[in-house]
Amino acid sequence: MASALRSEFSHLLKCSTTSQRMTVRWKKKPPKWCDPADISWAAPLLEKMQLKEQKGSDDVEQPPAMLHMVTRVRKLGGRPHWEKHTIKALGLDKVKKYEPVVHKNTPNVNHLLSKVKHLIKVVPVTFPDGLPVDESDFHHSILHNDGHLEVKKRLSPLEQQLTSKEDDKKELWKMDDDTVDKSTRKVLERFAMSREYFPAKYVYKYNQDGKEHRYHGNQNIAGDREWY
Length: 228
Known about the structure:
- This protein is α+β, with helices and mostly antiparallel strands.
- About 35% of the residues lie in helices and about 10% in strands.
- The longest helix is centred in the first third of the chain and has 24 residues, at about 1-25.
- It comes from Littorina saxatilis.
């Protein structure tokens, strides 16, 4: 009996080991994106975070902006009366929606802005072209949506020694290129090129001009009557 049990147990053990080997043999390896130990997919994100931290450490603290560009982004209908009074104090009640209004960066103005910060958008005004020097610079300046003011400064003329003109009368008759182009274009549009060399010769056969003294009775027009 003991020998028979041993042989049966050994046979079952062999079968179990072979089945285990077969399962391990045909088992596939997990892909890289499914392997928890593989984090190569996160390498670009980690690199971006490192660059962002490095850039933040290298940035120099910029001074606060002198001016703020404030725009109203929400309607005033149904808002409380104290918010409407604040909007009126900031000068945003009579302007259209998304129309910018410039304010100084002062504590009083910032206190008003904080009360209605959910109704407005505040953008600091920057001067990449420098501050305007003359009052005429403001006429040609452009305030963009991102807050930077494009200043088109007036060019100061170079100091040149003006020579005295010998004959001022001749200067009056000088023509520039624009005047010449305009006059020649007018001649072409009127089909009047070389008109002075080919004058028109009109022949009036039926007294269209009312000058009957030119007729002598030889054109079959009342030839039997006396012309006077």
